[in-house]
Amino acid sequence: MISGSGKGYLCVLAAAIMWAISGTTGKALFESGITPMEVVQLRATLASLLLVIVFSVRRRDLFRIRRADIGYFLLLGGVAMALVQVTYFYAISKLQVAAAILLQYMAPILVALFSMCFWKERPTATKLGALVLSFLGCYLVVGGYNLQFVQMNRVGILWGLGAAVCYAGYALLGERGMHRYSPWTVLFYALAFSALSWHIFYEPFHYLRAGYSLIQWTGLCYIAVFGTAIPFGLYFVGINYVRSTRAMITATLEPISAGFIAYLFLGEALEPLQIFGAALVIGAIILLQLRSERDEMTPELIRSRSVETREPG
């Protein structure tokens, strides 16, 4: 019989693999002629509609938010989440799938850097080492050792770095919301307001008139359901059984799986130095998460965070 922690790790692993398949599916859709804007519009729309159905049947209380927090959710979903999705998929459309995902995985590193610069967190040897490893790894992942490769993929690299910055911003904003609401509530309103943004700033309901083929619809539905709603659900279930820091470390299987899947189905292959760079980035994330886990176990930080959670934001 599988233990509770075993169930947690299995849920997070399944989520990471689903996210990896979603990235490869997106790349295949782009090669078939669909644009990243079309993907993000339909992804946010279908995923939020699926959550509406599930909440309506099982947990209507998850819809409840304070009126004063509507502006916060507009910012979180309509700006941060909308930008996270479009930068992520544009990076995938221009780069190798694994490289694009790894660039977005720089987000925790950027959050740590932001915390040291603006929240006066102490720059420990672990944090500084993780920063050095991550930036060196990023340099190798994007092929910085090959100027021709960089010139050919300059736009994709910029989109990937933009995805990391946007995801870091989303994570910082989302943390505030999770002090007040269930992760499901935060996820739903982020997706819903993201969908609203992409129906305002892109042709509304474009997908109804686009004439996608059955294969394209299958890919789009996979990204919305099995690449968004279900893996986030599995991830939330997983962190009920294991610490969130360990879940984040386990989720680094995503770029590894994405590289393998993209190689099998799209013929994409990373060069040895890129693989070494990927290992450095993942190692840096693991270092930061392990450090975070140790910090969370200190009585002083536990007390300070419990105070932060009770304070109105």
Helix-strand blueprint:
Elements: H1 4-31, H2 36-58, H3 70-94, H4 97-104, H5 107-118, H6 125-141, H7 147-152, H8 154-178, H9 183-200, H10 206-209, H11 214-241, H12 244-250, H13 253-266, H14 272-296, H15 299-310
Helix pairs in contact: 1-11, 1-13, 2-3, 2-9, 2-11, 3-4, 3-8, 3-9, 4-8, 4-13, 5-8, 6-14, 12-14
Describe the overall structure:
The protein has 313 residues and is mostly helical. Helix 2 (36-58) packs across helix 3 (70-94), helix 3 packs antiparallel against helix 4 and helix 3 packs antiparallel against helix 8 (154-178). The chain is built from 15 helices and no strands. It is globular.
What integer is the average pLDDT?
Answer: 86
Count, helices? 15
Structural shape: globular
Beginning-to-end CA distance, first to last residue: 43 Å
Helix content: over 70%
Radius of gyration: 19 Å
In the predicted model, the low-confidence regions spanning at least 5 consecutive residues are 299-313
Give the number of DSSP strands.
0
Strand content: under 5%
Helix/strand class? mainly alpha
Order of helices and strands: HHHHHHHHHHHHHHH
State the gist of this model:
By secondary structure, the chain is mainly alpha-helical. The chain has helices at residues 4-31, 36-58, 70-94, 97-104, 107-118, 125-141, 147-152, 154-178, 183-200, 206-209, 214-241, 244-250, 253-266, 272-296, 299-310.
Question: What characteristics describe this protein?
Answer:
313 residues, mainly alpha, 81% helix, disordered C terminus
